[in-house]
Amino acid sequence: MARAISAATVSASRRVRMSKAKVRWSRRQEGVQTSSSQAGPSAAMSGPALAATRAARASFASAGPSKWRPSSTMPRDGWGWSSMCEAGSPQESWRMVHMTLRDGAGTAGGRARNASSSARKRNSRALSWSRGTLPSVPFTGAQARRCYSRGMSMLRRTKIVATLGPASLPPATLRAMMRAGMDVARLNTSHGTLESHREAVRLVRAVAKEEGRPVAVLLDLAGPKIRTGETEGGRALELRTGATVRVTAEPVAGTEERFTIGYERLTEDVIAGERILLDDGRIELRVVQRDGDDLVCQVTAGGMLAPRRGVHFPETALTAPALTERDREALAMAVAECVDYVAVSFVRDASDIEAARAAIAALGGDIPIVAKIERKQAVEHLDEIVAEADGVMVARGDLGVELPPEEVPVQQRRIIAAAAREMIPVITATQMLESMIEAPRPTRAEASDVANATWEFSDAVMLSGETAIGKYPVEAVAMMDRIIRQAEAVAGPAPEGAGYGEHDDHSYVVALAARRIVASDPNMRGIACFTRSGYSALLMSKVHPDAPIFGVTHAETVYRRLALARGVVPILSRAVTTTDELLRAIDEALLSGRFVDEGDEVVVVASLPVRAQGTTNFLKLHRVGDAAAYQW
Ligand SMILES: Nc1ncnc2c1ncn2[C@@H]1O[C@H](COP(=O)(O)OP(=O)(O)OP(=O)(O)O)[C@@H](O)[C@H]1O
Ligand SMILES: CC(=O)C(=O)O
User: Fold this and answer.
1) For the Pyruvate kinase barrel domain, which residue ranges apply (predicted)?
2) Which residues pair with 162 in a beta bridge?
3) Of 28, 211, 432, 572, whose CB neighbour count within 10 A is largest?
4) For domain 81-131+496-629, which CATH number applies: 3.40.50.1400, 3.60.15.10, 3.40.1380.20, 2.60.40.1400?
5) Do the Cβ atoms of 11 and 4 come closer than 8 Å?
């Protein structure tokens, strides 16, 4: 009995957890719909910022659905066919059942099959079909024909995030990086001005549009990065092991005896016995005591300290929130420019994500939030953070300072698993191809690092200095693309659901069913997921099917955001209002992008009725091109 109760409790909590991510995405889609009509931008905004936000929101809204009905009004009667039909009448139920069977003998199907072989030949010749929608790797005719059998080799599942900076912002370089495989452009507000980032967002959008590619923009907030202050005459200070030194939050011209650490709550938060790490952990102090506005410390690992070096407090529970005033200004820009993701730095716990979400909402926006795990505090609060965030980043740069190096790979694995449980994307970041900042080839260890992140099911891997300031930004993206493709080519089948979730959610059950169908039927060319909020494509991505996931959506924001989801090929489609139109839109999207041929078979998953916002409750084995022939 006790066992039964505890199993039920676990199941219920899992249901709550799974639906939390779903509710967030659904809420977001609702926001898209209502943004132009109801809630106005924050009353606190005025002038050009208000106008920019209104214009941005109007374009955001135009991508949204025309109608929305809360999921609580949806039929919830499980797998009953009637619940999958728009009106649920017996005739419609029958038509749906008829339609969802594979009608191999049907005349329309027969015609389509005949048409398909010539279309396939045509497409095998027209190899440019992969360009513009899938990462553009030059294929020979023979390679492409082989790949064509399932489309898998054409698709790189693990996505590439590239940080933009002086090395990558010339438009020609940016274009070349997109062609080499960049899926997400990261802008780091720790560097450059907000205006330069605004221009960069617009440039990425313009070039991506010309290239016909879904490229998401991720704005990485600087957060409360703590640094040492200026030094006397700008010189490096020689801190000798064993020496005593005073640190203070007051701005002073630093000397070997006393220098600044730019953290207002220094003497309140940091207590005797705790360590302070300077310059990425190269220098270590231990706090002896507080003395007025100073902390008296002993240097336990000495070195030369240049001005404005990074500071970490691995043993201190810092009380300063993750969002600074400058971050709030960056968020206003992000909302005005409809940035696709915002990354919050130095997150401590879930409250930092809630604060960022509230700040975005107050600006009239709704942008998915990526929590950067780079503090020991965040590692300790990982579960609550991933439950609240829309994505997560293994920010190994700062994390590797707060934790001993041997703990970083362990935490990487733990963070990826936590993201999988919550069905949110995870980015593995920092020093992935670091040596390519200076050299045209990475080290063997770096190549292995990228491959391992792929095998661990990261949704994306990230380039930082390699593309921001490196000598070989395009080559770094191309190299990452090649390493991932090789790694994916030899990876075994991915675990179903990677060990998370139970079959207690309709959307999840549909995703698993689609995965199993493509696993058992090699003729299935992929899974076409019609998605309005992006959630069902994301969910599909998290069960790792062995086939491409075509994320078909009419919302441009969703189209771009799906660029981050592992294994998803985002395709922009038209808005639909009925099931017939939905199937025709899928056919059009797949055929016009030349992802498949007429007559090819795909699994279609969607949420019906079309005009409601609900669970992914529909699955159909579909022959591409047949939708036009349905006479309902
Ligand atoms: N917009 C930019 N303008 C100028 N330099 C940049 C820009 N973005 C990045 N860089 C440079 O590229 C380097 C690597 O970029 P990255 O975003 O990883 O910075 P970081 O300071 O190491 O990371 P973080 O701030 O996230 O801890 C930076 O140290 C900086 O020198
Ligand atoms: C990306 C980042 O901020 C880090 O690795 O610390």
Assistant:
1) 156-477
2) 185, 463
3) 432
4) 3.40.1380.20
5) no
227 lines ligand 1 (CB under 6 A): no
C-alpha distances in Å from residue 303, one per residue of 43, 283, 400, 460, 518? 51, 6, 19, 36, 58
The span from the CA of 412 to the CA of 430, in Å, is 12
232-312: what CATH class? mainly beta
Atom 2 (ligand 2): residue with closest C-alpha? 395
Q: Is the dihedral of CA 127, 131, 133, 137 positive or negative?
A: positive
Tokens of 538: 């994301």
Write out pLDDT tens, residues 571-626. Answer: 999 999 999 999 999 999 999 888 899 999 999 999 888 877 678 889 999 999 98
Query: Annotated active-site positions, please?
Result: 186, 227, 372, 430
The verdict on the CB of residue 310 being under 6 Å from ligand 1 is no
327 pocket-lining for ligand 1 (C-beta < 6 Å): no
For residue 421 the two structure tokens come to: 């449980």
Alpha-carbon span 527 to 619, nearest angstrom: 10
Within 10 Å of residue 49's Cβ, how many Cβ atoms?
18
* Tokens describing residue 590: 């797949």
pLDDT tens-digit readout, 159-203: 999 999 999 999 999 999 999 999 999 999 999 999 999 999 999
User: Rounded to the nearest 5 degrees, what angle is found at the Cα of 259, between the Cα atoms of 258 and 263?
Assistant: 130
pLDDT greater than 90 at residue 525 = yes
Count of Cβ atoms closer than 10 Å to residue 505 Cβ: 19
Q: Do domains 81-131+496-629 and 159-224+322-490 have the same CATH topology?
A: no
Whole-number average pLDDT of the chain: 79
For the chain, give the number of residues: 632
Contact 532, 30 (CB under 8 A): no
Is pTM beyond 0.90 here?
Answer: no
| pLDDT per position as a tens digit, 274-316 | 999 999 899 999 999 999 999 999 999 999 999 999 999 999 9
Distances (CA, A) of 257 to 80, 247, 341: 76, 9, 44
Spatial neighbors of 596 by CB under 8 A, at least 6 apart, are 151, 525, 526, 590, 602, 624
**Average pLDDT of span 394-401:** 95
Classify domain 159-224+322-490 at the CATH superfamily level: Phosphoenolpyruvate-binding domains (3.20.20.60)
99 CB neighbour count, 10 Å cutoff: 18
Q: What is each CA distance from 597 to 119, 549, 600, in whole angstroms?
A: 6, 16, 6
User: What is the model's pLDDT at position 27?
Assistant: 56
Residue ranges lining ligand 2, Cβ < 6 Å? 372, 374, 395-398, 429-430
Percent of the chain with pLDDT over 90: 64
